[in-house]
TrEMBL record:
It catalyses: a CDP-1,2-diacyl-sn-glycerol + myo-inositol = a 1,2-diacyl-sn-glycero-3-phospho-(1D-myo-inositol) + CMP + H(+). GO terms for cellular component: Golgi apparatus; membrane. It is a multi-pass membrane protein. Its main location: membrane. Its EC number is 2.7.8.11. GO terms for biological process: phosphatidylinositol biosynthetic process. The lineage of its organism: Eukaryota, Viridiplantae, Streptophyta, Embryophyta, Tracheophyta. It comes from Rhamnella rubrinervis. Keywords: Lipid biosynthesis, Lipid metabolism, Magnesium, Manganese, Membrane, Metal-binding, Phospholipid biosynthesis, Phospholipid metabolism, Transferase, Transmembrane, Transmembrane helix. It comes from the Eukaryota. This is CDP-diacylglycerol--inositol 3-phosphatidyltransferase. One of its GO terms (molecular function) is metal ion binding.
Length: 260
């Protein structure tokens, strides 16, 4: 009797009985579940030891050594600071290359960038007069990036570089073109390093140093010009970013109040 029943259901399944759909569906789900369970879940230590994150730790270490030597050895400071900045691009490439993109790595990268630039701007504010210029740049840099990150999470975006819905062409060009953004960032950091190297005392007048440097060397003049242009674009983007992010926060509150 049992064999007859098995034969009956075998025939029914083979001819497309409705129960065959559920039987096949169960088998597919079981296989998918087994495949999912077979993939090991990475532990916390594995994420901390991602290659781009290790590069991030090295960047932090280089910055600590650099700022510890900034006044006693300007050349060593400049070299370590610039190498750390270059590694900012390398860790992103490694993250994409080895499929090791992580939220922790992205935060580590941005925090390292902001702190290192902030420290250099604070030093420049103590070297040059008026120092308020560099402190203002520091405030703009921190506030614009913080607001941009916060507004990104509010609207549900994955990255703060996602500005496809922006109406500002410069903002979209900056974040949409990787090479252009890299140029502006490098130009900004190179300008700050050059200003630090050009300062001979701790009470320099900014305009006097720039004027004398322009007349001193054609190569230095060209380098300063290229750096100033990229720096100016980046500051303009920071202002646009600050306003755009602030608008996003305000619109979020308005939409939230209108919901029943």
């Amino acid at each position: 009797m049992g064999e007859i029943c098995m034969a009956y259901w075998g025939v029914r399944l083979s001819y497309g009985h409705p129960i065959s759909y559920f039987w096949i569906r169960i088998q597919v789900l079981n296989k998918a579940s087994m495949a999912k369970k077979s993939v090991p879940r990475p532990n916390k230590l594995a994420v901390y030891l991602y290659i781009p994150n290790i590069i991030g730790y090295i960047r932090v270490l280089m910055n600590i050594i650099a700022f510890a030597q900034c006044f006693s050895n300007k050349k060593l400071f400049s070299a370590l600071y610039f190498v750390s900045f270059v590694c900012d691009g390398i860790d992103g490439w490694c993250a994409r290359k080895f499929n090791q993109v992580s939220t922790f790595g992205a935060v580590l990268d941005m925090v390292t960038d902001r702190i290192s630039t902030a420290c250099l701007l604070v030093i420049l504010s103590q070297v040059y007069r008026p120092g308020l210029i560099f402190l203002s740049l520091l405030a703009l840099d921190i506030s614009s990036h913080w607001l941009q990150m916060y507004s990104t999470f509010l609207v549900g975006k994955v990255s703060h570089k996602d500005v496809k819905d922006s109406s500002n062409w410069l903002f979209k060009l900056y974040y949409g073109n990787r090479m252009f953004m890299a140029y502006c960032c490098v130009a900004c950091e190179v300008l700050y390093i050059l200003l630090f190297l050009l300062a001979k005392t701790q009470t320099e007048n900014l305009m006097d140093v720039l004027t004398s440097s322009v007349h001193e060397s054609t190569l230095l003049c060209s380098l300063l010009s290229l750096s100033v242009f990229g720096w100016a674009v980046k500051q303009a983007v920071n202002v646009i970013q600050l306003k755009t992010a602030a608008d996003a926060c305000v619109l979020y509150d308005i939409d939230k109040k209108q919901k029943p």
